[in-house]
Amino acid sequence: MKPYPKIIIMLIIALVLKSAVLQSQDSIDNKMKLLDLKLQLLNSRLELLDSKIKSWESWPLEMEGRLADIDRSYRQLGTKIMMMDFDPADFNYKFYLLDSMMKSQKKNTADTKIGNVISFRYDTIRPKPFKSVISLNPVRIFEGTFQISYEKSINPRNSIDVSGLATYATDEGISRRYMLNQSLSYYNPSTDTYDPYNSKNIYGFGTIIQWKNYLLASVNPRHRAPIGMYAATSLMYRRLWINGLETVFVEYEFINRDIIQKLNVFAGGVIIGSQISFIKTLSLDFYFGGVIRLSIYDNETSFTKYKKWDNIDFSGVLPAAGIKIGILK
Fold first, then answer.
1. What is the number of alpha carbons within 13 Å of residue 64 lying toward its C-beta?
2. Which helix (H) or strand (E) covers residue 262, if one does?
3. How confident is the model over 150-184, as pLDDT tens digits?
4. From 3.30.420, 3.40.50, 3.50.4, 2.40.160, which CATH number describes the 132-328 domain?
5. Which pick of 185, 217, 275, 292 has the fewest CB atoms within 10 Å?
6. Residue range 194-210, pLDDT digits in tens
7. pTM for this one?
């Protein structure tokens, strides 16, 4: 065998071995670089962990400082409270009483709103009882009389009602029918007889006093004076002037002569009625009963007799009934 081929083979083998060695060195270098990078990353993580551990170690100290500040603040507050001139326990008790009063006031306000509901019933719930009534009698207007009354409660069961009467009735006004129904006469001393005459007007004044006892005040507090059913005693006095004309025959002719009579009227009796409230502040008073009325003229010595019951100068027993419209206060 010739020496040249052996040399070539050995060169090839040497080249192959060198290439393998070079590849092996490159692989080792890459792995070394990768390992170096991993070590750097691990070092960074260790540094981060170390900083966190240091932060955790400083946190209890910081918390201890904060707690110490809070403790100092509470101690200062306690010192200020001790220096105050009132007892905190007493202050809490007063605050509790104030809160209870406010709750009670709210409850009373709610009850009042319920009680303020407008009702047309006589048992309307009221937050505050009425004490007085000012009323008018519309029926007496047709008799030519204006009657105004004032009723004042004395206690839940009793009240006093005082009325004033002012009369001016004429045969041409709203009292015309009432005047036409009057059958009046006067005493003529010259003939010793009673002569009839036509009344033109009646005027005067009077007063009525009533003591009212409310019957249901002890049963239902909403029927206390002046609201509810009542029984009353009544006294009346009227002073009246009656003007009229008499036709007489004098010296062959008829002439009209003026007649003026002065009349006193006394009355007393018992009535039963009921006063109800509606539209919150208005009242209606319905009543009926009986009275004894006595009438006497100034120029006579005894009470009148034999008069019609609807005459203004009637003496005797009469029924009494009427209605009054008022304002409650």
1. 5
2. strand 253-278
3. 999 999 999 999 999 999 999 888 999 999 888 88
4. 2.40.160
5. 292
6. 888 888 899 999 999 99
7. 0.59
